[in-house]
Amino acid sequence: MAEPKTKYDRQLRIWGEQGQTALEKASICLLNCGPTGSETLKNLVLGGVGSITVIDGSKVELGDLGNNFMVDESSVGKSKAKCVCQFLQELNDAVKAKFIEEYPEALIETNPSFFSQFTLVVATQLVEDSMVKLDRICREANVILVFARSYGLTGLVRISLKEHTVIESKPEHFLDDLRLNNPWPELRGFAETIDLDVTDPVAHKHIPYVLILVKMAEEWSKSHDGKLPSTREEKKEFKEHIKARMTALDEDNYKEAIEASFKVFAPRGISSDLQQLIGDRFVEVDSSSSDFWVMVAALKEFIENEGGGEAPLEGSIPDMTSSTEHYVCLQKLYQAKAEADFLVIEQRVRTILKRIGRDPNSISKTTIKSFCKNARKLKVCRFRLVEDEFNSPVLPELQKYLTDEDYSVAGGFYILLRAVDRFAANYNSFPGQFDGVMDEDISRLKTTAVGLLNDLGCNGVTLTEDLINEMCRFGAAELHAVAAFIGGIASQEVIKLITRQFVPLSGTFIFNGIDHKSQLLSL
């Protein structure tokens, strides 16, 4: 067996050793191992989760060979859970794999406490009634739940848990933390030792842009009542001032300063997202608070005191044109400030832990350090109970989705995926599942969908005939291509949730295979 370090080399570059460790500790339960479930689990087994439990009561039929790569002719008539489990085990022998030959619906009804042993449950191809019951069970037990469903050319993924907090949200584009608009004393002091009018041309073109901007911003605010450029005109004028300081055309440092001047115009202090976070009711911590909220409480105190309205400094600086000497000095300045901020927050965390009666050292230095580094990027996701969304979705949003041209197909599929479950509850089969009754099923599904829309308060909204016909034509088939895609999305979400890195989908993800569009509905 390959060493895990080389075996998982590619993914370690994305989520690091901590992320991999979290995956290796996770135990995952899969409900129903048709193509959607099998494809989801395949990605997680290859990624190296700790253990999997496959739950499915059905036997492999000939039809399964056409949409599931994890069963073959020799599997026909055998337990589907057993066959899929064996196949998955072969993909990665480091994963503990087991199966239970039972229908998930029965388990949900008769043995709800069964689910509390898992880190996360992936529930595939469940109808509404079972979704609602399982959601309640998992909420009670604090188990993360991910729903995934493929249905003809459409499908959905929906996460459900009370709260998910992320320190390493890893946004793609984020403004670096240079404090050019609000330099701390040491940075300002260093900038004061630099002369922008130095006569030596080599020295002039090697002043790092950070220092140019700190000095120019200081100069500007002195002559503008302590304010920085805010209007379009002022910003233009500020850039002209920088340009005027150039003594030669090839001065890259000044070009960089002009390009980065927007960093001076950014408002001082913390973002509205962070403002909202430190104003959250969970900031009032007690002995049952999670480590995340204890650190947020410390962060709030820091911002209001030592931080002077700013979050702790991140401490890294980008590449820039500079003399080595200046760059190293800057690097040390930023690192020292970040370290000092971290020590203050660490002390505050320890004090808070003591106050709420917990071991002051129960949160590691590494965790606090990572928290400080990511303080401006923290994310909290909260998910509505599926039952609440189903009974009372956010009406203005739902109406927008159903009538807005960009969203109407996704909105329509969302309603129809629920309508087919109502249909099945009434008629014991899905629309179009059996030959010969297509026309009757179309009109029945239409009536069911209209009834559902009325119950939700969307009277007068109609779904297109085409969409209703398509939904019947699907006949509840699980197409492999759609299942592989939905399984890909679901497994990606599972990895985000377990590693606590990146931001999971908030809302219901709808795949529309007719137009090849994916959309997120927040209801």
Automatic annotation (TrEMBL):
Protein location:
Nucleus
**Role, per record:** Regulatory subunit of the dimeric E1 enzyme. E1 activates RUB1/NEDD8 by first adenylating its C-terminal glycine residue with ATP, thereafter linking this residue to the side chain of the catalytic cysteine, yielding a RUB1-ECR1 thioester and free AMP. E1 finally transfers RUB1 to the catalytic cysteine of RCE1.
Q: What's the protein here called?
A: NEDD8-activating enzyme E1 regulatory subunit
**GO CC terms for this protein?**
cytoplasm; nucleus
Presence of keyword Nucleotide-binding: yes
> What family does the database annotate?
Belongs to the ubiquitin-activating E1 family. ULA1 subfamily.
Q: Which CDD domains match?
A: APPBP1_RUB (cd01493)
Query: Keywords assigned by UniProt?
Result: Nucleotide-binding, Nucleus, Ubl conjugation pathway
What does the record give as its pathway? Protein modification; protein neddylation
Q: Which residues form the THIF-type NAD/FAD binding fold domain?
A: 8-506
| BP terms from Gene Ontology | protein neddylation
Single GO term (MF) = nucleotide binding
The taxonomic lineage of its organism, from the top, reads:
Eukaryota, Viridiplantae, Streptophyta, Embryophyta, Tracheophyta
The lineage's top-level taxon is Eukaryota
